[in-house]
Hints:
The complex is a heterodimer of chains A (463) and B (212).
Chain A: H1 7-14, E1 16-19, E2 25-28, E3 31-34, H2 40-49, E4 59-62, H3 79-94, E5 98-100, H4 110-117, E6 125-128, E7 142-145, H5 148-157, E8 159-162, E9 166-173, H6 182-193, E10 201-206, H7 208-211, H8 215-223, E11 232-234, H9 239-245, H10 254-264, E12 277-282, E13 289-291, E14 299-301, H11 312-321, E15 336-339, H12 347-355, E16 368-371, H13 376-384, H14 387-394, E17 397-398, E18 419-422, E19 437-440, H15 443-452
Parallel strand pairs in A: 3-4, 3-6, 4-5, 6-7, 9-10, 9-12, 10-11, 15-16, 15-18, 16-17, 18-19
Antiparallel strand pairs in A: 1-2, 2-8, 13-14
Chain B: E1 6-13, H1 21-24, H2 44-47, E2 79-81, H3 94-102, E3 106-109, H4 114-123, E4 126-129, H5 132-144, E5 149-153, E6 158-160, E7 166-168, H6 173-181, H7 185-190, H8 193-206
Parallel strand pairs in B: 1-2, 2-3, 3-4
Antiparallel strand pairs in B: 1-5, 5-6, 6-7
Helix pairs in contact in B: 3-4
Amino acid sequence: MMENDTLYDKVWRSHSVHERDDGMTLLYIDRHLVHEVTSPQAFEGLRIAGRAPWRRDSILATADHNVPTTDRSQGIEDPISRRQVETLDENCRDFSITQFPMLDVRQGIVHVIGPEQGASLPGMTIVCGDSHTSTHGALGALAFGIGTSEVEHVLATQCLLLKKSKNMQIRVDGRLPPGVTSKDIILAVIGRLGTAGATGYTAEYAGAAIRALSVEGRMTMCNMSIEAGARAGMIAVDDTTLEYVAGRPFAPQGTMWDQALAYWQTLKSDAGAKFDAVVQLDAGDLKPQVTWGTSPEMVTDVDGVVPQDDSVDHRNALQYMGLQPGTPIEAIEIDKVFIGSCTNSRIEDLREAAGLIQDRSVADNVKLAMVVPGSGLVKRQAEEEGLDRIFKSAGFEWREPGCSMCLGMNADQLEPGERCASTSNRNFEGRQGKGGRTHLVSPVMAVGAALHGHFVDVRKWMP
Amino acid sequence: MRPFTRLETTMMPLDRSNVDTDAIIPQQYLKSVKRTGFGKYLFDNWRYLDPGTLDMDPGQRRTDPDFVLNQDAFAGAEVLLVRENFGCGSSREHAVWSLLDHGFRAVIASSFADIFCSNSYKNGLLPITLQAEEVNELFEQVAQDPAFSCVLDLEKQVVRGINGRVFSFEISAFHKHCLLNGFDEIDLTLQHEDKIRAYESQMKQAFPWLFP
């Protein structure tokens, strides 16, 4: 029986505290990541009930959604944003929770700093009041987003009451062509499955193309699992995972490392594992992807056209996006470019993006092209490698770390009607600002669009 | 949590699929540190023509008369009727808080996103999943008679429409029990405090690196 388990089955079982007769499981949570937007009401709930956090050392907090990406030495200008960040500071102080405050070099997007610090480890259960918590599954962890009531529940009990999901394998064989990235794989997967295609499943990404990805590339894939409806996405532990984790500040050291390693090496689906659904793609067939609508499933190849469809949702999307069916994707001009977010703001993303610039400049019709590193440490690393100079001399703005224009809770927003090539994860109506039009792409595709002022097929431009 | 048993009410039809939580409540309102007061921002980008912020008075903003929430016929409806994959995207519980604060107590859809569904249960908002054809039938009933009242009976797990139409729905025994009684899940979990402590002692031996 043991040899037929999926990776998800294994991590789930090892965290089951109690199985109820009604099919619900009390699941133990190892790591709780906290940010300023979805936690204040949970801390308030704890206070009202007179409860304390069950395990303070399981919690790591940072402010990422509201923080400015320009000079922050003077604090946050918007009083409402400032109040929310100060509330997190107060809660962390009152409950003795480890926090990386805004001016700490370790501050950043919660889904970037967890893995970066080794606070997210293989085999862990990891939660955060944020749907993109699925990111951490790239390390062989079971990681998923929760609501604020669940944040309070984990704070108070270290557990969640959950029903186990079904297992889906998303198998990507073959080899990615130059100019095609893990972002294009996941966008193609979402295009295939639809935004609800994996609802009720935990997705495991497998196959040669996934094994060939770096941990950063794998995080991009797991990050967007939720855009296909899957609350969690996972990838088996291999040498790439272990090399990534080794030596990070919160990772085990010495004999503890050896002990952990022996366990982590078992974190893969068994040969006879049973999946309730299997989806297969060949990486070699993939082209750079561009979304054209208001849902991540509305995506096509860069050499394609805006599709024709008579459904109400399709018509609403095209009207909002200001596009006509049949328009070639490469003919779509853009106003702004955003390189950042928990999907694509890690060092590898910035290296790939900078690599395409080659002494060229941002096109005249592009009003703003900005690069927002995922953390203070990513920013510092990029600056040590000289990437900031490449971006700045091409006309990109080089900013401080945070969620930024992925959702525009800080000052970084689109104006009504503005069209943006964005490396983020959601192209919903109003996501980057009321009336803003978002096209999701990979970092190299965003740079290509910035340099030409419209989408281009970067396969023709790769160095 | 307010218990949910039986409800007789009109419905507000919102004929859309994949309604995401950004549409239910946009990002600028997530800056509030409270759980209450979100109802006036429900579907903000669709109901108002001009942009808003937390410190603006919504009464001063221009509303879109074509949007269903602004139509008198549906004022007071306690059930929202939508198509598939309602509540997808962001995990923001503010989406559920804004629906409840506006006065909705249940949502009927042909499918829901996972996180939205669990957030609903935690706050006493009843998510009812019906077959797509049944949802369609309800849309037709509301189109014919916006004033028609349906009955939601959680105990019997049925929605009663007009002409004797009865649609049954599934719900887990656990969530039904919690909703009917208005139970707080934290209290239920803390009944197993000894099991959690026993699990932790066991794991400290097996996976010591998780307990630095």
